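To: structure subgroup
Subject: Chain for Friday's discussion

All,

I'm putting the inputs and outputs inline so they're searchable in the archive.
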Amino acid sequence: MSDTDKPRIPAIALQKWRNIADLLAQLAGVPAATITIAEEDGIRVIAPDRGPDKYFAPDDIIKLGPGLKVYCAAVIESREKLVIPDATKSDFWRDSEGAKAGFIAYAGVPIFHPSGDIFGSVCIFDRKPNKFEGNIIRLMEEFGEIITGHLDLIGKNAQLEETLKDVRTLQGLIPICAQCKKIRDDKGFWQKVETYLEERSNARFTHGLCEDCMQKLYGKEKWFRKP
């Protein structure tokens, strides 16, 4: 799914996701939790606008580049959960961006679009070793599914808005030529009825002749006359 195909995420949904991250951090007993969104030029971080750890701003953008090791980017790329109990004991993760910021423990699960495409991740961070045992990973997966449900509703609302735009366009007075029956659009151009309606609805036209027109065109032809 390209960025142009993605519906705009309303502010109320982003605030709900910040609340989820805030609640998740409290339940897990960790200093930070985030929701991330995969974007073309990096990763957008949706973080709570309050809490003890202010490392993440509410809407940070992490720019990705060659050799940059980012926990949540690995989750998004692999489309699988990732648990790092202690990055200092990992040859790969000890020099990651998260470890450099002091977050040596991490857990993340992927979030998917209703279509199955990757959307982002649910992430939690700790400044001390943490195995993230118990039901915390399952809770993160449940939160991920809730966000997928939000995305489904956002997409359906966007489709409904487009449909309502079409309906509203066809309401009211429509200027039509009394002679040729062309319709004048809102830019002042005259269009055939078929073109005007096809551009503003899901209707498609097939062409034929009514009885009156058939009589007018072919009524005098011998081959057309009924015996």
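Points worth raising on Friday:
The chain has a mean pLDDT of 86.
The domain at 3-161 is CATH 3.30.450.40 (Beta-Lactamase).

D.
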